[in-house]
Amino acid sequence: MEDTKKGGLWTLRYTLMNATYFVAFCTIHACAAVFLLDRGFSNTEVGVLLAVANIVSAIFQPVIAGVIDRRGFLTNRRFIMISVVVILLGSVVLLFVKDLKAVIFAVYALIYMIQFAYQPVMTALCFEYQKAGSRIDYGLARGLGSASFAFTAFFIGRFVESNGVTVLLIVNIITMALSFVLALTFVKPMASDEASGETAKKAAHNGLISFAKAYPAFTVFLVGTICFFFAHNMINDFMIQIIRDLGGGETELGYANFLQAILELPVMALIGFVLKKISSNKLLVVSGFAFLIKITILIFATNMAMMYLSQSFQLFAYAVFTPAAAYYVSTTMEDNDQVKGQAYVTSAITVGGVFSNLISGVILDNFGITVMLVTGTLVCAAGTVIGTIAMTSMKHSSSKAAL
Q1: How many domains does the chain have?
Q2: In this predicted model, what pLDDT tens digit does every residue of 318-333 receive, in sequence order?
């Protein structure tokens, strides 16, 4: 009973860290265009800022992960604390700077990049603490994080309409202050000396070539991940255009976003049970096919019911991919490569989004929605083939077997 109580407290604290993270993710990432357009940026300038921030984030994540994996001063917990302070201070600066576009560009790009960069570190933190003896239900905590995003997305628009974009900055400041306190008190139990010594003996694979040789299946799967999220981001970034083509508007956009986010909760909450029946590498293959079905439905969609049907496949696509990828990294990689593994997943997701941003809009402007969706489907299909081969036919690790 005591162990169960302690496990519940660890899960609760980690859940609150996830909740604060995803509330801010909604106000910083999902509402980026809303904020920047209000500050006088053009659509082109918004696109450039987000592309720059995403590219820098994709490069920065594995670099910082390599530093954390060396087990020096910079730990998962300390990097999270540094990140939330940067976002908090950046939001304070933006609260007072309203006309200097160069300053706004630099500060917003920084907090956008940092907020994305510490997402894989949050995941690595959970598995680090689990191995040190903390009983944390990752799937439940991550699912409730998605739920916090869903409810924030549902309500934040009304607050912004009534009070202006300053609301977004105030929410950032409050959530980051709370997140800092949570991280400050989230102290890891002492791991055994034997386990710590064993970790120290094993060399980290900090170079990309060295990492790829150690984890060939994972490295190839990252190519498939880029393809999955090319399609996934195509739908998310241009959803309003797709919905308008189906006769809907901003209200239906809110419903669609809420639907896909809230559906993630039950799947992520039950992922621990599912993983006892189906291995993480097989679940990643399932998620790839779900991404493909999700975008294929939209090619043939003629009404909003089919749009909602497409969004419901979030149950098997993103909702399965996220925890399955986290558990796959945790069970196939050495401790000194854990943070890098989580970071490479997020980097691949980011790269897929950057390519989608650069290509999808051009196709949409010149050839229309159907051609854009067909392109996304073909790219996703290629990713599904690549991902299936990687997870079913290739070597997962030089020293561990995949779950």
Answers
A1: 2
A2: 999 999 999 999 888 8
